[in-house]
Design brief:
With 260 residues, the protein is an alpha/beta fold. The protein has 2 domains: 148 residues, NAD(P)-binding Rossmann-like Domain (Rossmann fold, 3-Layer(aba) Sandwich); 94 residues, ProC C-terminal domain-like fold (Orthogonal Bundle), CATH 1.10.3730.10. The strands form 2 sheets. A 5-stranded mixed beta sheet has the order 3-4-5-6-7, sandwiched between helices. Strands 1-2 form a two-stranded parallel sheet. Helix 7 crosses helix 12 and helix 8 packs across helix 9. The protein is elongated. The two termini are 22 Å apart. 25% of the residues are buried.
Amino acid sequence: MGGAILSGFARSSSSSAHNLLAFDKSSSQCEEKQQQIEGLTLCKSGSELMKASDIAVLGVKPQIMKGVLEEIAPACHKDMVVVSMAAGISLAFLEKHLGMDAKIVRIMPNTPAMVGEAMVAVCRNSNVDDEDFALVMDIFNSVGKAEEVDESLIDCVIGVSGSSPAYTYMYIQALAEAAEANGMEPDKARIFAAQAVLGAAKMALESRESVEQLRINVCSPNGTTIEAVDRLIENGFMEDVKEGFQAAVNRSMEMTKEKN
């Protein structure tokens, strides 16, 4: 996820106003990113990165976050903003290890940051003023859309956008496989299925009509679409999606209890 955000931000027009630094314990990953991103400076350690940064994004897994925080805490300076994207790691946990006066932002992004279409939930502690927060929001708006939320909604965010690209890929895969079964070439099936999802999503974002009404608009009486929609509803499609969403939310809540 960290690599996706770094790559996405590097391709945005906003990146020209920033010096980009990176560190990863995997030297091969660092070198690969440096080849992909012009002007990327590699640091020799996490501590070196923190000392040189105004805004530092921690793209590490929740299970190793405690060790990383203990390593970098002495190198953090009072003016910097530390951004964490680790699921289940609360602002309170981060403050405990970085200091109660640390400026901390918690985000929940998703992998479409790689193509500039991320959905990023952002929440901050009381030490982050509006000026610093605007800079953080600018970074994440440059890789898609960013919205400030209360930390209490982070688990919900994981279900609705953090994990949901995976459910959406399943839907695209099912459509493409069905098209192939009806004689379409695999490459074309993928394009038709994915573009239909992209177009529908764009309409959902830009239309003033409800999502339900957009669906109704496509369904002519006794037509092909209503036949498909009725079958999906009959088979529990909507409820299955909601159950999958809730499973992700529940697991996020469990992880928070385990890590904090």
